[in-house]
Amino acid sequence: MPEIRLEDPAAAVADGALDGPVAEPVETLRRAWGSHILTLGVVAGTLFAVDFAAKTLIQRQLEFGESVRVLGDVLRFTYIVNEGAAFGLYLGDASKTIFLVLSSLAALLVLAVYVYGADEGWLKRFALALILGGALGNIYDRTVYGSVVDFIDIGVGSYRWPIFNVADIAVTVGAILLGLAYLDRE
Q: Which positions are annotated as active-site residues?
């Protein structure tokens, strides 16, 4: 029986040391994670870190409900918490649990698509990494605080968009880019 080299599962598959039902999942993981894990880790990790740092800074510098003008009245930082989903979507008392479960399932789905889905180029990988980083940022808040810290407040006068955060931007931009990636393949 050939020696199994755990540090190189692809070589083990090629040498025939891993075959049958084990070979295909190992090869799938090697293909998906081997050369592209850097994209997923760097983009999702950087986004998580930026989101965490921004929320921490807001929590330390502003009182709850306090608003500070950044670009006149167009852009303000307003410290609030959101028990619902992105952009203030709220489903009643069960929102905390519902959105924690949905966010966690979304993160797992993104990982599954990244690992087991077809490699359809850098745009799809980048979009999935953005979605994952944003989802993890909001999952962290829901797990630690029971709600999500929001602070980006855009609008003019009394016409305001619902307050959001860096993670919401990442998820939204990632979803748009993912849609473009799928449109581009046709």
A: 150, 168
